[in-house]
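User: Structure tokens for this complex, please. No commentary.
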Amino acid sequence: MALRFHPISTLAWVTARGSVSGAKGIGLIIGAFLPTFVIIGLIAHGITGNDLVSAYELLVGELFLPMVLLIVALLLAVPLFREEIDQQSLSYLLTRTLGKPGIVLGKYLGYVLVACTILLPPVVVSYGIVAIWGSPPAGMLDGVLPALLVSTVLGIIAYGAIYLFLGLVTRSALIIGLIYAFVWEYLIGGLSGLAPDLSVMHYLMSLPALWVSQGPLSQYSTHLVLWQVIAAPIIFAGVLIFLTVFTFWDFGFIPSPD
Amino acid sequence: MSDPVVKAVNASKRYGEVLGLNGFTANFGPGITGLVGPNGAGKSTLFRVVTGQLKLDAGQITILGTDAWNTQWKNRLIGFCPDHPGLYDWMNPEEFVRTLLMIDGFDPDDAERRTRRSLETVEMWEYRDRKIRTFSKGMRQRVKVAQAIAHEPKVLFLDEPLNGMDPVGRVSLLELFSKLASEGRHLIVSSHVLHEVERLTSQIVMISNGRALAEGDLHRIRELLDQYPHTIEIETRILTDHPDVTSIRFPAPDRITVQTSVPDTFYQNLPEVALMEGINIIGVRSLDDSLEAVFRFLSR
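Assistant:
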């Protein structure tokens, strides 16, 4: 009861609701289900068994994690501060007793809540469709669902933190966020040696590789161990949330004089 | 003398090359204080600093004796009605006010009661189920005032609160502000529409280019300006040879406007002169005793 009505949880709930109000919410949900639609299309064309499982894992590895997850996180997390700064509605929160760390935390938790609500169901539904109607070979899907769920949650946590920070500090957060997503994450992630360790996606892809024993997801090359794969995105998010609070603490948000 | 509610000493805030506040020094309150100045004078910047949204580059501003920056606990004591139109448009006014109260730490039942009371006070309860995005500017202003008063703050900062209001709405809000002041709350009300502030209070702080031009009682400020010609409109037929009159204009056949450098002496002598000269004076009013005129003097 107390937690339900705590100021931070109130802000988190309002943030979550506001993030998906109107057409934006519907668009994000449809976008998140893109891989699911492709899976349904493949089954409708008679593709089943080993081919379907391979296609499903490729879709998750090449479309869902590096594209859908990144874009949904970007579109949800950047506006958390940026829209309120541009519309100057942040003044309603700043003149409350919640405090700036509470505002950052409430907004971030609201984002995590809504991002999980949008992104986890497609993972479960896609898996369910492949498992039930795809006639997968025995053992082919072992460990896939938990690995993908954990990877998705870790991605939500890490990418949300960096986009939240960008939304606070720059008006060009969407563009910089896109550059980060598709230049940094792709370029760094595609390099050899230790360079991919600087990319969040490397950790998200490493987890299924460590957890799944067969199929395309298991073939991703990584030198990391499981605890590193789980801890790194969480630490990355924690540092960025701290940085966001630190920046916000000393931040005069008004964009221009009256 | 009572302690000021807000005290600013050499407060400066710069936005790049633009000065929002430029060594602003003034005291506000208790009671209602009008913050008067043209658009771009620094009124909103001052409010943002006082309410802890902006950090000063130099100087100090205290509210109830506490530094305004990053002291969130004091926010329960203040209410802020911003001048910008931004609201959470996807909410209805009831959700908006209640949510802000709960973010402020009020429990849901208390928040519900306060929401209803504040929306009723600004006459918006009947629109509680309508989305804010469908509201007119005047209705949005009322919602902004409702969220500012819902937690019954001790000090209210109202930035151009009558902007976009219809005449009836203006009157009801002005009455509300007077009532809040009579309950012992302190109000700082900004406006560039000078007669609005004049209707609320004679205690004013005048601001221009980020500096305080004058503060205190409007009429006392005017007394300080006696070195400037004082303009008085007299509804009569003649007063051309009065020794206190330095110039005279005839804006209408039954009306003259005179300027004097000794307004007190002029007012004192006027009845006697009128009696002796047989001048029928129907009315006298000081054209300079409006904020607009005082502001023009001070800005020169």
